[in-house]
Write the structure tokens for this entry.
Amino acid sequence: MKKAFVKSYGCQMNAYDAARMADVLGAEGYAATDAVEEADVVILNTCHIREKAADKVYSELGRLRVLKGERAEAGHDTKIVVAGCVAQAEGAEILARSSTVDVVVGPQNYHRLPDLLARSRTKRVVDTEFPVEDKFDHLPARRTHGVTAFLTVQEGCDKFCAFCVVPYTRGAEVSRSVEAILAEAGKLVAGGVREITLIGQNVNAYHGLSRDGANATLPALMRELERLPGLLRLRYTTSHPNDMGDDLIAAHGAIPALMPYLHLPVQSGSDRVLKAMNRKHTGDAYRRLIERVRLVRPDIALSSDFIVGFPGETDAEFEDTMRLVRDIGFASAFSFKYSSRPGTPAAESADAVPEAVKSERLAALQGLLDDQRHAFNAAAVGTVVEVLVEKAGRHPGQVAGKTPHLLPVQFDAPAATIGTLVPVRIVRAGSNSLFGEAATDAAAAA
Ligand code: 5AD
Ligand code: SF4
């Protein structure tokens, strides 16, 4: 049997795409493998969001070149595929830079992988044109394994933040229809999935065709999904503050399946920087938004993304970001040094912040965010929370799952609890995980 190895970088949407690529190849008779050295097809599903992410592709290709040579000596052919956002952004340039690559395929074209692989027998191929057909109409059924799953409901972005490549790599905002999403979700749940995370680059701008021919909003979509028998939890990511409408805020208090967790990137706390970033909101507008969300869902866990060292950012402007973080209090967050991306408006700016200053600011911000994360985790100790059990734990007899706040928990329980909700008393907060004990006699005794 032929084998395929898929490695994914970057965001959850890339992880979703990688799983769907494995489905496409699975339908062609390829078995998925975790061992790259035995793969007949190797796919790197790349990320272009920051310079470092894009650099990884070329160092990985260097290693694959050696591997491909070794396999060739042993009489095996290996096809190397570069997919994802670097493929979209660089296209044929990748073939020029790396002679090992056989296929370059963009995020909207991977349903054509079988054809591209066949064509690559005679000639190296690039497919990054935005196709007229919708890849989702051409993808085979998903093979599901896990308790949780991502489901792409929206792709692309029309926001054009000055630093970001996504509008160029993923194209304009497109929403899938409610019907297509319900069909995919129904199959996931039938396959044992209990929690679905709706994903999109700008998921709260979702406006897919509803069954009555109108446009459905994200909360309307979630109302349809929550009716699926067997589906216990819903999440969504990632969002833009300007698309947090009243109905979506209200949904956080009104849809029981929607978990109390919100990833809402703010990027900066400085109004001048936010303006230069073309974010079209202020720090105070973000604060007010969070206040309103907390009014309907006081226990919500907040998460965000931050960029330090955007061109021209002063010490005082960075302090505005620190102040915003202190004002709000985040359960978790991602923070990055600004990385100039070719083709974006900010890449034209002349007033780059020195690398050393960026490093200093990042360390200070991450220190603060880490303190907040530890405090949030520590506050869970002593409480009883519902854990959706996802898999076996690190040690025999243990299982692992997540709280409504998306915190990982390990506790002793039989494997039969996988896929169910178990009340767990949290006894200790480790650095990456909480530890607890089943809080019902039934689960403890089972
Ligand atoms: N430099 C640094 N961070 C970036 N992000 C997006 N583009 C850049 C860039 N050029 C960050 C943003 C975004 C997250 C996915 O990545 O914080 O929300
Ligand atoms: Fe990276 Fe953005 Fe592409 Fe996701 S969509 S893989 S974050 S460049």
